[in-house]
Amino acid sequence: MILYVNGVKHDLSVDPDLELLTVLRNNLGLTGTKYGCGEGACGACTVLINGHATRSCITSIGSVGGKAITTIEGLEKNGSLHKIQMAFLAIDAFQCSFCASGMIMSAVSLLDSNPVPSEDAIIKAMNGNICRCGTYPYIVKAIHSVSKS
Ligand code: FES
Ligand code: FES
Fold first, then answer.
1. Ligand with the closest atom to the CA of 133
2. pTM of the shown model
3. Does residue 91 contact residue 141 with C-beta atoms inside 8 Å?
């Protein structure tokens, strides 16, 4: 099976029914994508598939062959973090950080499709990402700061 992850081509012999999250973490060592609920309900495992935020825990590897997969590790370019990563750091939009990878990937997807979202649009787009530490106001603020810049 051919996978394109963060611009790198991988030829893997894996069961096509395996979840993308499992392959990212166990076969490719990309552990920035987190396992939360395992059933599509928390957003911790969010990655981009052809630019769209996708729950990797409920996405079979067989369905993403040949598609562009981007994980949190793929956002940094030439040693520089993505502007959303920078905003999360600047605003301290973390506590334990377990949700952060999925939050950031969802935010990237949102701002790619809507570069200047309203606060309501941010809340609606991020609604499926759960933060057990309750850092939601800071996350919205971080995304808003990027949209204004
Ligand atoms: S681990 Fe995938 S949505 Fe929760
Ligand atoms: S910062 Fe802990 S779950 Fe979000």
1. 2
2. 0.96
3. yes
